[in-house]
């Protein structure tokens, strides 16, 4: 998984006939993608990611693991079509990405409308779809039920716990029945116990629906327990360092996946790689780097 091999499946550029994506096109394809940001004053430019290439297959769960500042959120926003890349090419189901009902986005900080009920927050995401009012309500109820919030449709976000708010955000993202789910550290601000329950909930729902998922996290454990593949990102500018397959049997909530040898070995390997990445980053805030790695990482 490097930027070296560049596939050009036919001539996709230029105008002419509309691009009809083949059924076989993957959920996401990044081909040598770069993106820079200019500071507010316009004085400096930060290369957020450079030469990023990867593929997320349909119905596949991929975790994007990396230290903070390595471009994880940037990659999600490029996949959603909220941002345009500077170089390379991004495709979602074989076409240029654009925000819409086919892609669900779950943000770390929930982003619920505070003056709307849980029900209305979920229903809001359905507004652009060709559904009548009764269908919208039915779908909203169904998805609140799916995330275990049937009894809380009338509650306002301020009346809900962090875990419940994130369930509402998940229901909102799922309600359009997207083929692709983009999740940006969705459980990072939830307490450890609730987080584990949310992971199980997500795996259960994923098994029912099988959307492609690109799940951003900086937790090694979360990446292993959830994903089919883990992409490790290195910082400044962000790039894919390596990709590993997680060969643990599913469903992983029916047995203690964390106790198995495969899990323990993968965890130890990835944790070590993450440490190396953080410590070799000159812009890291980690002041202990001189002590933590003999010989200086
Ligand atoms: N809108 C923006 N304006 C300027 N710099 C940005 C912007 N978004 C991200 N960056 C910079 O790009 C780099 C990657 O950011 P981000 O994708 O948010 O990383 P991550 O999600 O891995 O923490 C960081 O150095 C960040 O400061
Ligand atoms: Mg981020």
Report what the structure shows.
- The protein is of the alpha/beta class and 297 residues long.
- Helix content is 31%, strand content 21%.
- It has helices at 72-80, 118-124, 133-146, 162-175, 192-209, 220-226, 261-279, 289-292, and strands spanning 28-38, 45-56, 61-65, 87-92, 103-106, 180-184, 212-217, 229-234, 239-245.
- Strands 5-6-7-3-8-9 form a six-stranded mixed beta sheet, sandwiched between helices. It has a three-stranded antiparallel beta sheet with strand order 2-1-4.
- Helix 2 (118-124) packs parallel to helix 4 and helix 3 packs across helix 4 (162-175).
- The longest helix is centred in the last third of the chain and has 19 residues, at 261-279.
- The protein is globular, with a radius of gyration of 20 Å.
- Mean pLDDT is 88; it is low at 1-18.
- The structure holds adenosine-5'-diphosphate and magnesium ion.
- Adenosine-5'-diphosphate binds at residues 37, 46, 48, 66, 68-74.
Descriptive tags:
single chain; 297 residues; alpha/beta; Rossmann fold; 2 domains; six-stranded mixed beta sheet; three-stranded antiparallel beta sheet; 8 helices; 9 strands; globular; disordered N terminus; binds adenosine-5'-diphosphate; binds magnesium ion
Mean of residue pLDDT? Answer: 88
**Sheet having the most strands:** 6 strands, mixed
**Quaternary assembly:** single chain
The CATH superfamily name of the largest domain is P-loop containing nucleotide triphosphate hydrolases
The H/E string reads EEEHEEHHHEHEHEEHH
In spatial order, strands of the major sheet run 5-6-7-3-8-9
The CATH architecture category of the largest domain equals 3-Layer(aba) Sandwich
